[in-house]
């Protein structure tokens, strides 16, 4: 293995997907819906690969199928409030993963520092390292503001610490809002602090907004690229998998000013080169349809969040009832919870892992048949201890499966 991948051999996904296969738990681990995507989206895919236009089964334009980049530019021009050029400012990728990869690879070299907020979607760290960069980590801190349940908004950025991390070597900062796994939806004030530092130090902001439509009232998703002076220095990343509940389609995108997009485009054309045509066609049609009803609550961009809200509340309730302490998310479809009030119910001596959250989640998959994800996977090695008391559960599941999860926990406790 080349040096650039040393230390990145382990993946929580590889490990926990295998664990689920072996132990057959109720799976609230890896994030994916267990219910059907909107009909019009899946029908569009069937039509795209069987219809009269047989060329939809052949290669398409490398930086993105024309119909899809047009739809994306139309959508984001509208929500960002400026005209986005589909030819030079949008790149379609193999999932948001490849959008992150192309952006990080295309904008990071040896000696560059990249600021990453902890917890972070785990692939950021190996991507920065394999690009030759040095990740610099800053953990969110739980600062509970009042009585009642903990909210993802109680997980705060330490502004002084953040400011002290920017220097002349800082190349970029990766921001994820709505956040996986905390569910934090960054506020205008928080984004402004980050934006001001980016402008002061001439830093690129890589804004991972894959959960952009999954935000719970009264919270609002604010796009980094809409902040004053930030379009010029932001690449925003999105995912059709999240937007349309089709994670298996692995189609994502990056958009930003042409000057910044040249680099990820160069990476993309020299690795993946072009993504699946029929899937891009179907996603394009999906966007066209949803854009035609963006003024209606039926639009999937809003209806999915409406559907998820009671699931979130139900999960927060049953986790609390068994004694865990959940952080109620403002966005996204994950919930972290402190499991340690139940520590006397588990026998962690049976597990060999280094961190307690790994021991807990493995023991639970095997013995209680409920799977979650150990959130220390989302921290750098020196900071993993900060989150060992927590587990992450996914709530984009059928009500009956959430009900089963509640019953499993109640029976066990
Ligand atoms: N970023 C975040 C924060 C995610 O949770 C995910 C989900 N895997 C991705 C990026 C990657 O998305 P995709 O499945 O489209 O590659
Ligand atoms: N984003 C999803 C999660 O956090 C999927 C992760 C993955 O497939 N690597 O669970």
UniProtKB/TrEMBL annotation:
<keyword id="KW-0808">Transferase</keyword>
<dbReference type="InterPro" id="IPR015422">
    <property type="entry name" value="PyrdxlP-dep_Trfase_small"/>
</dbReference>
<dbReference type="Pfam" id="PF00155">
    <property type="entry name" value="Aminotran_1_2"/>
</dbReference>
<dbReference type="GO" id="GO:0016212">
    <property type="term" value="F:kynurenine-oxoglutarate transaminase activity"/>
</dbReference>
<dbReference type="InterPro" id="IPR051326">
    <property type="entry name" value="Kynurenine-oxoglutarate_AT"/>
</dbReference>
<comment type="subunit">
    <text>Homodimer.</text>
</comment>
<dbReference type="GO" id="GO:0005739">
    <property type="term" value="C:mitochondrion"/>
</dbReference>
<comment type="pathway">
    <text>Amino-acid degradation; L-kynurenine degradation; kynurenate from L-kynurenine: step 1/2.</text>
</comment>
<dbReference type="InterPro" id="IPR015421">
    <property type="entry name" value="PyrdxlP-dep_Trfase_major"/>
</dbReference>
<keyword id="KW-0456">Lyase</keyword>
<keyword id="KW-0663">Pyridoxal phosphate</keyword>
<dbReference type="GO" id="GO:0030170">
    <property type="term" value="F:pyridoxal phosphate binding"/>
</dbReference>
<protein>
    <submittedName>
        <fullName>Kynurenine--oxoglutarate transaminase 3 isoform X2</fullName>
    </submittedName>
</protein>
<keyword id="KW-0732">Signal</keyword>
<dbReference type="GO" id="GO:0047804">
    <property type="term" value="F:cysteine-S-conjugate beta-lyase activity"/>
</dbReference>
<feature type="domain" description="Aminotransferase class I/classII large">
    <location>
        <begin position="25"/>
        <end position="408"/>
    </location>
</feature>
<comment type="similarity">
    <text>Belongs to the class-I pyridoxal-phosphate-dependent aminotransferase family.</text>
</comment>
<dbReference type="GO" id="GO:0097053">
    <property type="term" value="P:L-kynurenine catabolic process"/>
</dbReference>
<keyword id="KW-0007">Acetylation</keyword>
<keyword id="KW-0032">Aminotransferase</keyword>
<dbReference type="InterPro" id="IPR015424">
    <property type="entry name" value="PyrdxlP-dep_Trfase"/>
</dbReference>
<dbReference type="InterPro" id="IPR004839">
    <property type="entry name" value="Aminotransferase_I/II_large"/>
</dbReference>
């Amino acid at each position: 293995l080349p040096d650039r991948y040393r230390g990145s051999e382990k993946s929580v996904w590889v490990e926990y997907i295998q664990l689920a296969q072996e132990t057959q738990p109720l799976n609230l681990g890896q994030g994916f819906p267990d219910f059907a995507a909107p009909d019009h989206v899946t029908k569009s895919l069937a039509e795209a690969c069987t219809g009269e236009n047989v060329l939809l089964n052949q290669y398409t334009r490398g930086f993105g199928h024309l119909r899809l980049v047009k739809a994306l530019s139309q959508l984001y021009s509208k929500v960002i409030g400026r005209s986005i050029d589909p030819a030079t400012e949008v790149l379609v990728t193999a999932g948001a993963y490849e959008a992150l990869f192309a952006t990080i690879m295309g904008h990071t070299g040896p000696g560059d520092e990249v600021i990453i907020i902890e917890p972070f979607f785990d692939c950021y760290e190996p991507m920065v390292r394999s690009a030759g960069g040095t990740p610099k980590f800053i953990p969110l801190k739980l600062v509970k503001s009042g009585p009642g349940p903990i909210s993802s908004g109680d997980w705060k950025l330490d502004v002084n610490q953040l400011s002290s991390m920017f220097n002349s070597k800082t190349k970029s900062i990766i921001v994820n809002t709505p956040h996986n796994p905390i569910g934090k939806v960054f506020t205008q004030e928080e984004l402004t602090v980050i934006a001001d530092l980016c402008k002061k130090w001439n830093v690129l902001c890589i804004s991972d907004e894959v959960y952009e439509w999954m935000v719970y009232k009264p919270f609002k998703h604010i796009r980094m690229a809409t902040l004053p002076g930030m379009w010029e220095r932001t690449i925003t990343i999105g995912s059709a998998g999240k937007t349309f509940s089709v994670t298996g389609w692995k189609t994502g995108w990056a958009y930003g000013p042409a000057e910044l997009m040249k680099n990820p485009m160069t990476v993309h054309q020299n690795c993946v080169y072009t993504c699946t045509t029929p899937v891009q066609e179907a996603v394009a049609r999906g966007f066209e349809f949803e854009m035609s009803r963006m003024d209606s609550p039926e639009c999937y961009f809003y209806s999915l969040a409406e559907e998820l809200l009671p699931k979130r509340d139900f999960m927060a309730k049953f986790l609390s009832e068994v004694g865990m302490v959940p952080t109620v998310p403002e966005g996204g479809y994950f919930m972290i919870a402190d499991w340690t009030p139940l520590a006397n119910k588990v026998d962690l001596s049976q597990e060999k892992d280094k961190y307690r959250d790994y021991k807990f989640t493995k023991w639970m998959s095997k013995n209680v048949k409920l799977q979650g994800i150990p959130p220390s996977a989302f921290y750098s090695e020196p900071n993993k201890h900060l989150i060992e008391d927590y587990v992450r559960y996914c709530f984009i599941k059928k009500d009956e499966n959430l009900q089963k999860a509640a019953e499993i926990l109640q029976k066990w406790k």
